[in-house]
Structure formats: C-alpha cells, structure tokens
Amino acid sequence: MNRDDSHQHKARKRFGQNFLVDHHVINKIIAAIAPKPEQNIIEIGPGHGAITEPILAKCPSLKAVELDRDLIPLLTEKLAGYPDFQIHQGDALKIDFSQFYQAGRAMRIIGNLPYNISTPLIFHLLGFSPQIEDMHFMLQKEVVDRLAASPGDKNYGRLSVMVQYYSSVQPLFSVPSTAFRPVPKVESAIVRLLPYSQPPHPANDLELLTRLVSASFQQRRKTMRNTLKYMLDATQLEQLDIDISLRPQNLSVVDFVHLSNQIGALQ
C-alpha cells in the first residue's frame, strides 16, 4: 500500500476496516500464499490493495470482493496496469462463491477479515469446500487460537470442532497491531485452512452434528449427559458407547461425529 492512499479514504468502523501498511508483514503473507500465474485466487476485502498489488504481480487474473463502494474507484485506478483484475462489489457473506470456480482451477481464497464477520464468513465459505483448494486469512489472534484449538484447551469450542470437521487448520504467524492503520486494539494472526475434499470422518446427518456441537458448547461447563438428555431418553443414553460424564471440551471432532451418528441411529 502507498501511504498516501490512506489520506484518500478513511477507514470505516462499520466495515471493521484496518489497513495493512507493514511491508515486512506483507512480504511474509505473500510468501505464505505463494501465488502462481494460472491460479484462481479470490481476495476478500482488498482494502487499499496492500496484498492485492503484489499478488497481481504474480497472478494477474486475481479477483476481489469488496463491500465498500468508495474503495472500488481507488483500487481500479491504482491497479489499472492489470487488465485481467476484476472487482466484484458486494457482501462476501451473501456472495455465491461457486461463480468463481473454474473446472480444473479450484479457488484459493485470501483476505483480511473483519472480526465482526470472520466466523460467519468462514462457515459460509466452508459450504463451498469441494471447490476450494485453500484459504489464507488474517484474523484476530484469538479467533485463530479458537480455530486451531485441541480438546482440553480453553479455546476449544464450537468453532474449533466445526471448522476442523471440514478442514485442516494451520496457524502460520502472528501480526502485531502496529502493522495496521488505524492501529487496532487486538493482535492478529495468519491462518491457512485446507478444506477436505471429503471429511475424513463423515457425519451421517450434518444438521444433527451441527445441532449437537452447538448445544454442547452452550453449556460447556456441564457434562454431555446434560446436553444429551434433551435428545435421548434414559434407555437410549445407556446404549451410547461414549463417556457422557465428560464435558464437551474433552471430546474430539471424531468423538462428536461418532456420537452424532449414534444419536441418529437411536432416534
């Protein structure tokens, strides 16, 4: 990003905008993504183009999704030297990303995601898992810790289980708040998500798994027996081959899938 750009456009709080300005961090992110010329890369929220421009230099057909209409003319002018660059104005939470898929060219999705939409947006994108090769996101560090958490970890919860059901989670590195303008109050981190073409432990009923995980972590201090008593009667509870005196944070993704499949068979 050219530092002068920040004078042309003020960061908007309602869009959760914090623009990346640290060139050392930018170079680390580009190295992690490792863009190639013929890849199908989509950037969510290009902002002032801090990541966009160096990626375009390696992948001239990059596409971007930007919500803020005022940024589009700035980006169009700044990146006029890349005729294959496309900007789609719209809300990433509502966009059908399958429109960007091309046969033989799975999507690679990148973005600096605002905290207020990061979780719903990740779930929205995981709905397109079979068409996505990988995703690289800058997120609040606390969110990355939750995405990557293991059973027993205080950060382990619904987000950990459901994202790890769909994908491998690889935290890459932290980004200090001083790398942004305006400077946010939180630390950020880069994470790589590698969606599975097929989940390694498939749920027979995905809706049931989602409901089970959500209900379990709403009462994370209580045992699984407390959650399951609303789903199964006393006789059915006895037929489960999992220790229901455990708390939800002690169950792995595989445990939740296995439990959900058993519940489905008993109901």
Query: Mind telling me the CATH superfamily name of the largest domain?
Result: Vaccinia Virus protein VP39
Q: How do the helices and strands follow one another from N- to C-terminus?
A: HEHEHEHEEHEHHEEEHHHH
Cα shape: elongated
Q: Quick one: biggest sheet?
A: 7 strands, mixed
Structural class: alpha/beta
| Multimeric state | single chain
Mean pLDDT: 92
Number of strands: 9
With strands numbered from the N-terminus, the spatial order across the biggest sheet is 4-3-2-5-6-9-7
> Which bin fits the share of residues in helices?
25-40%
CATH domain class of the largest domain = Alpha Beta
- Beta-strand share of residues: 15-25%
Provide the number of structural domains: 2
Description:
- The protein is an alpha/beta fold.
- It has two domains: about 190 residues, Vaccinia Virus protein VP39 (Rossmann fold); about 60 residues, Helicase, Ruva Protein, domain 3.
- The chain is about 35% helix and about 20% strand.
- Strand 5, helix 5 and strand 6 form a beta-alpha-beta unit.
- Helix 8 crosses helix 11.
- It starts with a helix and ends with a helix.
- The N terminus is likely disordered.
